[in-house]
Amino acid sequence: MVEKLASAERDEALAKLPQWRHDAAENAITREFGFPDFSRAFAFMTQVALLAEKEGHHPDWSNSYSTVRISLSTHDAGGISAKDIALAGEIDRLLERAPA
Amino acid sequence: MVEKLASAERDEALAKLPQWRHDAAENAITREFGFPDFSRAFAFMTQVALLAEKEGHHPDWSNSYSTVRISLSTHDAGGISAKDIALAGEIDRLLERAPA
């Protein structure tokens, strides 16, 4: 059973994920992603879905045309856990990979 | 340019889509879909994404594990148009098709 991070641990972890922010109301970490169009937004969502299924940890997320908003929280732990931090880092890495 | 439906037209169309409801706050028609797990929820989302791209009309939608919520509105028309009604019907038909 994964445990919720203490506030200091969470803030330290978030310092390494500068594009994610702590949403206190949702008790989650969130990031919004913009793409040129729906096709590219959904292609990204497909990559995130495969990652989430592999990790057994799934986002709460929404899409409106070219915008994707992802919210990560560990419901079983009642807050943000190391699983959320790890998944956020992996999602960020998806976007770093440019075609060769 | 597609036009917003008058209230009576919208209500008549919605009578044929009993699982969709008019969300006055969102100025949209919405439906929530439940699946056995994330994999099946995302498979459905992929089908909806292909349909939306083909129709050139895209949903505002969210997913949380096995639940998908779809909201359809025609932003250019400032409300619900025939395009939303048509897409809602096509989305419903995706779920009617059982494997042979």
UniProtKB/TrEMBL annotation, chains A, B:
Keyword annotations for this protein, in alphabetical order, are: Lyase
- Biological classification of the source: Bacteria, Pseudomonadati, Pseudomonadota, Alphaproteobacteria, Hyphomicrobiales
Query: What PANTHER family does the record tag this protein with?
Result: PTERIN-4-ALPHA-CARBINOLAMINE DEHYDRATASE
Concerning Pfam families, the annotation shows: Pterin_4a (PF01329)
Q: Which InterPro entries match?
A: PCD_sf, Pterin_deHydtase
One GO MF term: 4-alpha-hydroxytetrahydrobiopterin dehydratase activity
User: What family is this?
Assistant: Belongs to the pterin-4-alpha-carbinolamine dehydratase family.
* Keyword Membrane among record annotations: no
Q: What organism is recorded for this protein? A: Devosia honganensis
Enzyme Commission code(s) on record: 4.2.1.96
Designated name of the protein? Putative pterin-4-alpha-carbinolamine dehydratase
Q: Reaction(s) catalyzed by this protein? A: (4aS,6R)-4a-hydroxy-L-erythro-5,6,7,8-tetrahydrobiopterin = (6R)-L-erythro-6,7-dihydrobiopterin + H2O
